[in-house]
Here is the input.
Amino acid sequence: MTRSRQGNGRSTIYKGGDGRWHGRVTVGLTDQGRTDRRHVASTSKSKVVERVKALEQARDRGQLGNLSKPWTVESWLEYWLENVSRPFVKQSTYEGYRAAVRVHLIPGIGRHRLASLRPEHLERLYVAMLKIQTRRGTLMSPGRVHQVHRTIRTALNEAVRRGHLERNPAELAKTPPMIEHEVEPYSVLEVQQLIEAAKRERNGVRWVVALVLGLRQGEALGLKWDDIDWMTGLLSVKRSRTRPRYEHRCEPNCGHKYAGHCPARHNVRPLTDTTKSRAGKRIVPLPGAIVDLLLAHRESQSVERQRAAQLWSEEGWIFADETGRAINPRTDWDGWKRLLAIAGVRDGRLHDARHTAATDLLLLGVHERTIMSVLGWSTTAMASRYTHVITPIHSDLASRLDGLLWSN
Here is the structure.
């Protein structure tokens, strides 16, 4: 056996006892801290020399992934999911990525080599997804496809940044058209009816906050009394109430398919998380009428605290259940639907209350940058969604909004 050995961890080329030429290249350390030596072999010395040089160049550029052990789409997505995303994104964001990766992307395109992935592979996956029937008996929505598309695009952008891909095929792939929901704000008369009905409901000011200030559901349910500066009349939006995610904790097995129905269920999510975006963390001015409602609500909650006695949990929520604990978003949604029925107002999404607040601010002529700060928008482009609603009613309502919602 003939060896040409170099010191200081340099590459080695030699002819082995098997009659073939071998090359070994030191590329760094393994995850366990050991020296990582890569091996190539051929019956041709020139080919080994060429491959050793290629390994050395790839090592120096930080591009060894494709040369030493080519990534598959599955291996890259799993690595990206657990090592790039999970430690650095919100839990809810990670869970969305995980569902897209493991339910759709890996089963659909996971066996492809990463470097061989093409836009056509993604487009065929998206078309197949649109034919999947959901548990509700409906076909999968384009919105779900777009969520999967955003996930693979983000994961592949990181692969491009690291040199594992030259170009992101997800940037070229066509996605199905989205069905955009029309903005359906409630009229001034409907808001008046809802506010009047809310006066008779427990936690009724919660719906006034939604209709007038436009807080998202999680933001409203995540409010604490310490978030209000009573002297200045300012409200700090700092956190968002999360939707519970349950796991079974029953022994023996309770027999329920879904953990949410388990008698011993355990919520594995924290009660709150940061706001939806950086812009979501904001200071909101409180109209005097809402300050008065919140003061009355605080008194009502004090009565409930005394009534609950030792059962009360002093957690500081502005909107709490009868024992002081945080309200489940599903319970809150049911409360909104009940309020609509009591007020005799057309059915609508809870998010339509936020649309209503945005529309009223635009009708009042509030500058878009100010609306951004109040509603927590990341961009003023959101305002363009409301143009078709505002134009036909602007002249009719602009002069009536000042003080109208609480007029006698």
In short: The longest strand covers residues 21-29. The radius of gyration is 29 Å. The chain has a mean pLDDT of 86. DSSP finds 15 helices and eleven strands in the chain.
